[in-house]
Design a protein that fits this description.
Number of domains: 3
GO molecular function, one term: acid-amino acid ligase activity
InterPro entries: GH3, GH3_C, GH3_M
Largest sheet: 7 strands, antiparallel
GO cellular component, one term: cytoplasm
Strand content: 15-25%
Pfam families: GH3, GH3_C, GH3_M
Radius of gyration: 23 Å
Low-confidence stretches: 37-56
Mean pLDDT: 84
Distance between the termini: 50 Å
Protein name: GHDC protein
Shape: globular
Helix content: 25-40%
Number of strands: 16
Amino acid sequence: SQGSLLYLDALGAAFPRALAHRGTALLHWSPGCSLAPAGWALPSLYRPPAPAGWALPSLYCTPAPVGALPSRAAALRLQLLFALGQRALHVLEAGLAAELHDALATLRAEWPQLAQELALGRLRPQPGLPEGVQSQLQALLTPDAARAAEIRAECARGFEGIVRRLWPQLQVVVVGSAHGAERLYCDALRQADCQGLPFYCPFYQVAGALIGVNLWPEEPMPQFLLCPDWAFCEFLPCPAEEEPQTLLLDELWEGREYVLVVTAQPGEYRCRTGEVLRVTGFHKQCPVVEPVRRENQKLSVRGESIPEEQFCQSLCRALGMWPGARLVDYVCAESSLLGDSSGPCAPHYEVFVELQGLRDLSEGQRYKLDQCLQEDFPVYKSFRFKGSIGPLHLYLVGSGAFARLREALGSPVPMPRVLREEQLLRFIQDSIIS
């Protein structure tokens, strides 16, 4: 509850209309749970009625039970539909930036059908929507031909900056996670669909524990104030010392990096989370940190240990040499996971990318990524020269492949970009277009 109040206070101070009645649309899939993304205790549309004479305001215009549907695609589509019906939105909230991206991809693909449903005030049957829930939602939907016409007109113009055109009073996009694997989606949304809107990530959660809050909604990069009484946190210096000793909150130094160790509640096990944090400053003697990377997300077919975030930097540099291409998402895996299907050559990287603006790559363009990796990582270049690591294999996958992969995973947490499960790669292979 303390975290919820701090979040609401920071949000309301930075964006005065953000706490308006039914002014927030929620796009989040949480099967078996109807809470908001980070579990904060905010009033919802389906909250039980208040006692006589009381009025409980609702921040959300999207029905809470929709997020608990067994189908991720159905949940996000229905939440998008109810959000489209509310023109006077001030906040667009998503548990993950990937969920917002996938909902807007549904808008691109199905805007005529969505507009038709709003115009008629009638939900069409769809997979993953039980009949009982459909009748419950149908009672909340009223015909709105004027709003449907507005949606048709804006979508027909294209989708650059579509979010602000559909919701002209929108002030901020709130996401449950904006670092690590989700940063790529935040950057892509800022450049295209959500042009001109600030992104606010209010909470920092690790290993199931809420440990920090972002009090600066208007800052472009999220920074989190570590709250001393929310969880017991210890810190290991990074890079590691010969005989490392854990440090407490009052022993941290500005500008240094630390690995986070968390004990969520008294009596629980200590957990080395693998999260590397950088101390950016202090707020009333408490450290303010930004997440930097995860220790265990590395590629290593011969012991070269390329961290995920540095591989992503090399990929983005190669992308700059592919005219017109915009990166939607990617995954990378070691070839051993594919077995015989990866070919007879030496161990190598298997990279799957989804792009906008480019439907094929020449062999020369594909080689640019391997070239960038050799320039950025001398150890990788040495292994490539010796032949102990083979040239990477780069594949383009079709539009929406990663959205289908998230549906197949059946988990509302961010998807790792360094995959370890062979069946996930098989799923991606089914989507390869070149």
